[in-house]
Amino acid sequence: MSPGWLRRPGALLFVLAVSFGLFLRVIPSTAKQPAADFLLQTAYAPFFAIRNWSHELFALRVENAQLRQGLAEATWRWQQHEQYAREAVRLRALLDLASAADYRVHVAQIIGWDRRGGREEVLVDLGRTGSVVMYAPAITKEGVAGKVIELMDHFARVQLLTDPACRIAVRDMRSGVLGVAKTSDDRRLHMERVAVEADVEVGDSIITAGIGGIFPEGLLVGTVGAVASGMEPLLLSVLIDPAVQFDRLDYLFFLERTAPLPPGAPYELPEDGR
Amino acid sequence: MNAPVRRESAESATYVVLLVATAVAARMWFDNLHVFGPVRIDLALMFLSYLSILRGVTFGIMAGTLLGLIVDAIHPAWMGASSVGFAAVGFFAGSFGQALYMEKSMARGILVIGAVLLFDIIFGMLSVGITRPFWLGAVGTIGSALLSGSLALLMSWLYRQWRGRVVSEPEAAGRA
Questions:
Q1: Tens digit of pLDDT for each residue in B102-120?
Q2: Does one domain contain both A45 and A121?
Q3: A183 DSSP β-pair partners
Q4: I need a labelling partner for A155 at 20 to 30 A (CA). Which of A3, A172, A267, B173 fits?
Q5: Domain of residue A73, residue span
Q6: Whole-angstrom Cα distance, residue A94 to residue B65?
Q7: Closest alpha carbon to A142 in A80, A180, A94, A79
Q8: Beta-sheet strands, E only, within A152-212
Q9: What residues contact residue A180 under an 8 Å CB cut-off, 6+ apart?
Q10: Does A8 reside within a domain?
Q11: Whose CA is closest to A252, among A121, A141, A170?
C-alpha cells in the first residue's frame, strides 16, 4: 500500500524529480561537468552571442566617439601646421628680401580697418616702440600692401595701395617702363603716366621702381591686366591686377631700412606727375 | 481528435522556452536582478510559479527540473540543488493552483512569496559551500520573497486592469 499523498496528482513525478536532483547533487563535479558544458553550449550560447555582440557594439560606440574626437583634434592640428607652413614660406621670402636689400622685417597684426570717406587704411598693433618708422613700406608675402602714414607708440596707421591717395613709383619688369601705381576713382589699380608708345603688355609684372626712398626696388605690385588708350591722348591706361589680396589681409610686414636714406628722401610723388 | 493535445503541447513547449530564456537572460545580464545586496528579484522563479498555476503540477515539476539544470550549469558543483528547488516550487504552485482559488492578485502574490521562501530554504540546504552569515541569508530570503511577491501582485493587478478594459470595451460596444 502506497502512502496517501503519493496518490496526489504529480506526487510521483515530484519524488522522481527530487531524487534526480539529489542524485545530481551528490555525484562528483567531474561527472557533472560534461552535462554542464552541454547545457552551456546549447542554452547559454545564443545569449552569450547576444551579450558579446551588445558589449562589442557598446565598445564600438565608445571607440567611435574617441576616434571622432581624435579626428577633430588631428584636423585642428593639421590646419595649424598648414598655417605654420604658410607662415614659414612667407617669412622665408621676407628674410630673403631683407637680407638682399639691407632691410629688417617687423611683423604686425591688423587690428582695425578704416574705410571712412573712401579711405583704405588699416590699424596695426605695432608702432614706434616696435621699430616701425614713418612711411615704412608695408608688404605681404605676395607683394606691396601700402605704407605707414601715421605713427603712434604702439600702433600705426597704414595706407593701403587700394586707397586713392596712395601712389607708388613702379616699373614694368620686362621693358623697364616707369609709371605711378594709383587706385583710381573706379577702385581699380592703374599704372599712370605711361606714354602711348610705351612697351607695356598684358601679363607683365609691375614692380616698385625704388624711386622716392620709401619702397625698395623690386617689390611686386601686380601684373598688367589690360592696356588701353587713356583719357588723355598721349597716355595709356594700364590696368594692374594687384598681387596682394587685400580682402584677406591678416598680418603685415614692415621693412626697416638699415642703410641711410638718400638725401631728401622720403618724398611724396606729386599728384600731377611733374 | 489529437489537435487540442498537440496545441497544448506546443503551448507548453513555448512556455518552457520562454521560461528558460528568462532565467538565462536574467542570470547573465542582471545577475538575478540583485536589488539591495542579497535581496533579489528572481524573474525565472516568478515565471515558473505563474506557469505552474496555469498549467498544473506536471508542467511545474518538469519545467522546474529543466530550469534548475540550466541555471546550475554555470556552477556544476551545485548542480541538482536548483533543480530540486525549482521542482518543489513547480509542485507547490501547481498543487495550490489546482486546489485553491488563485484568481485574485493577492493570492498570486502570496504564492510567489511562498515559492521564493521554499526555493531559498531548499537551495540553502543543498548548496553546501556557500559561505555567508546566516542572518544575511535570512534577510536576503525574506526580502527577496516580499519584493518578488509585491512585484507579482502588482503585475497581476495591472494585467487584470488591462484585461478588464479589453473585455469591457466590446461589451460596451454591444450594449450600444
A1: 667 777 788 888 888 888 8
A2: no
A3: A189
A4: A267
A5: 33-101
A6: 89
A7: A94
A8: 156-160, 167-172, 178-183, 189-195, 205-208
A9: A167, A168, A169, A170, A191, A192, A193, A269, A273
A10: no
A11: A141
- What is the C-alpha to C-alpha distance for residues B60 and B98, in angstroms, rounded to an integer? 12
Q: How many contacts (CB atoms, under 8 Å) link A and B?
A: 97
Q: Determine if the peptide bond prior to B4 is cis (ω within 30°).
A: no
User: Closest Cα of chain A to B84: distance in Å?
Assistant: 5
Of A13, A35, A47, the CB nearest to B58: A13
In this structure, the answer to whether residues A97 and A120 fall within a common structural domain is: no
Range of the domain at B38: 3-175
Q: What tens digit of pLDDT does each residue of A183-201 get?
A: 988 889 999 889 888 899 9
Could you tell me if residue A11 is inside a domain?
no
Kindly state the cell numbers that stand for A218. Answer: 623690386
Whether residue B17 lies within 8 A of chain A, CB to CB, comes out as no
Distance CA B14, CA A169 (A): 97
pLDDT of residue A79: 83
**Euclidean distance between CA atoms A105 and A215, whole angstroms:** 13
Asked if A49 and A182 sit in the same domain, the reply is no
Whether the predicted interface score ipTM is above 0.85: no
* Residue of B61, B68, B84 lying closest to A10 (CB–CB): B61
**Which DSSP category does A42 fall into?**
I
> How does DSSP classify residue A41?
I
User: What does the pLDDT read at residue A149?
Assistant: 92
